[in-house]
Specification:
By secondary structure, this protein is mostly helical. Helices cover 58% and strands 1% of the residues. 43% of the residues are buried.
Length: 315
């Protein structure tokens, strides 16, 4: 699973990024594109060897990256191979998300369904997602935001930070596609509830869940999991990109992204990567590659869209 995140997101973050001057990136766009194609083709050839269910969040993460590559290949090279691969997956499972009705992880695959729908405008690709989300809206979970693995209702809401990557972009996209404010209202309400529960306003970082708020690292710092914050930081662009420019909620997500970006920049290690614990990197010798890919993706997106100042973030 980690290789999906690292390769797809980190390569996507540098493809067509106009903020970098010639010579700043060690690869040309053509070389990056060639490498991305090799990665995508390898995934297509080896996907049957993956042990997780095709609708599982681990595979959904791959699909979210793959659909962006499919869009590029289709637009530039008139190559629908990757879209067709994703369509085959959707058709095989009737465009239905995984089994747990509320669980954010099981909704992540809907991001791919929606993006493929945008390409083909086939309502059968979108309708099961609408039905699933409408059911959630009609039967909102009363689960607690205090996570307890012995009580599965505490996993029905966004009670852990990774969830902010998995499900929120689905609600944002449905609002934009349908124009129905109920999706936006639910998104804003549940997202802000998670922020109020897990976001440290002093450090501008997220605890993984409520159980980690009191935990301290070896150096005495608060425990902020690198990859967990990466999920949030990379998820915010997916939400913002799925909201119309005149959406009243965009500013909230942009402000949160900019706040997090400063914390992300300040926790980057001297060798360029991020570690498992953002405030205690010395306790972890190895780079956290998935976290680092997420952070690079978010920063590159912020630069490309003008939300981050080049002087501070381009280096």
């Amino acid at each position: 699973m980690k290789k999906y995140i690292v390769v797809i997101l980190s390569l996507l973050s540098f493809l067509n990024v106009s903020v970098f001057a010639a010579g700043d990136v060690p690869y040309t766009k053509a070389e990056i594109k060639s490498l991305m194609k090799k990665v995508a083709d390898w995934q297509l050839a080896h996907q049957k060897e993956v042990k997780h269910h095709p609708m599982d969040w681990t595979n959904a993460t791959l699909y979210i990256g793959m659909v962006k590559w499919a869009e590029l290949a289709d637009k530039v090279d008139k190559d629908e191979t990757y879209y067709k691969w994703l369509v085959d997956i959707g058709n095989r499972y009737s465009w239905k998300a995984n089994k747990r009705m509320y669980h954010a992880d099981d909704l992540a695959v809907c991001q791919m369904f929606i993006d493929v729908y945008k390409r083909y405008k086939d309502k059968s690709m979108l309708q099961p997602t609408i039905e699933r989300i409408d059911w959630i809206l009609e039967h909102p979970s009363k689960g607690s935001l205090i996570i307890d693995y012995s009580n599965q209702t505490t996993l029905e809401r966004w009670s852990w930070c990774d969830a902010l990557f998995m499900a929120p972009p689905v609600y944002a996209a449905l609002y934009t596609i349908t124009g129905d404010k109920i999706y936006l209202e639910y998104l804003d309400s549940e997202y802000k509830a998670c922020v109020d529960s897990l976001y440290d306003k002093q450090e501008h970082l997220f605890y993984r869940d409520n159980k980690r708020i009191s935990v301290r690292e070896k150096n005495g710092s608060k425990q902020f999991w690198g990859r967990g914050n990466g999920w949030v930081f990379a998820g915010l662009p997916l939400i913002i990109d799925n909201l119309p420019l005149d959406c009243p909620s965009r500013d909230y997500y942009i402000r949160l992204f900019a706040e997090m970006a400063e914390a992300v920049r300040n926790t980057q290690c001297k060798d360029g990567d991020w570690r498992t614990s953002l405030l205690d990197p010395d306790s972890y010798d190895m780079p956290e590659n998935s976290c680092s890919a997420f952070m690079c993706y978010g920063i590159a997106w912020g630069l490309r869209n003008g939300y981050l100042p080049k002087r501070a973030y381009k280096p």
